[in-house]
Amino acid sequence: MTLALALTLTLTLTLTLALTLTLALTLALALALTLTLTLTLTPMNPVNLALRFFLELIALGALGRWAWAQTESWWRAPLAIGVVLLTAILWGTFAVPNDPSRGGSGLIQVPGIARLVLELLVFGAAAFALKGLGRPTLATAFAILVVVHYAWSYERVAWLIRQ
């Protein structure tokens, strides 16, 4: 494979992944904006909550594996553990009060849109980490599952935007 072909394939996969994540945000925002302001938030479907938990675990694993692959020195393990811990701490610390997708409130209460951005950044970083690890198909599948999750939980997305 020539260098030009490899660069073209890499660029194509990167653009596909970026477009998929952009589609997720656009779809979530479009669905949220079509809902009325009187919408009451109902508890999330348990299957969707399981999917969300699965996505969170995959994101932590992908980010940890990506950090591990960044160096071959002795500090690769502390780096991987640090990236996973930092991501988990950020995920658990910043929360919207009364969010039905979470077991409790975080230490720092933030507006809904800030939480939504944090979630999309973590999931997006995980997708790019998978791509960076040479797993473009897995990265695309992960991004598609993120889109499915946010489309399925459009009521929560609308609620987050209004908070």
Structural summary, described in words:
The chain has helices spanning 3-34, 46-69, 76-93, 112-132, 136-152, 154-162; strands at 94-95, 108-109. The chain has 163 residues and is an all-alpha fold. The chain has one domain (17-31, 44-162). It has a two-stranded parallel ribbon. The chain is globular, with a radius of gyration of 17 Å. Residues 35-39 have low confidence and may be disordered.
- The percentage helix is over 70%
Query: Strand portion, in percent?
Result: under 5%
Unreliable stretches, pLDDT < 50, 5 or more residues? Answer: 35-39
Tell me, rounded to a whole number, the average pLDDT. 82
Write down the Rg. 17 Å
Q: How many individual helices?
A: 6
Instruction: Please tell me what the overall shape is.
Output: globular
Intertermini distance: 51 Å
Number of E-type strands? 2
**H-E string:** HHHEEHHH
The biggest sheet, with number of strands, parallel, antiparallel or mixed sense and barrel status, is: 2 strands, parallel
Looking at how many chains there are and whether they match, the oligomeric state comes to single chain
Strand order of the largest sheet: 1-2
How many domains? The number is 1
Structural class: mainly alpha
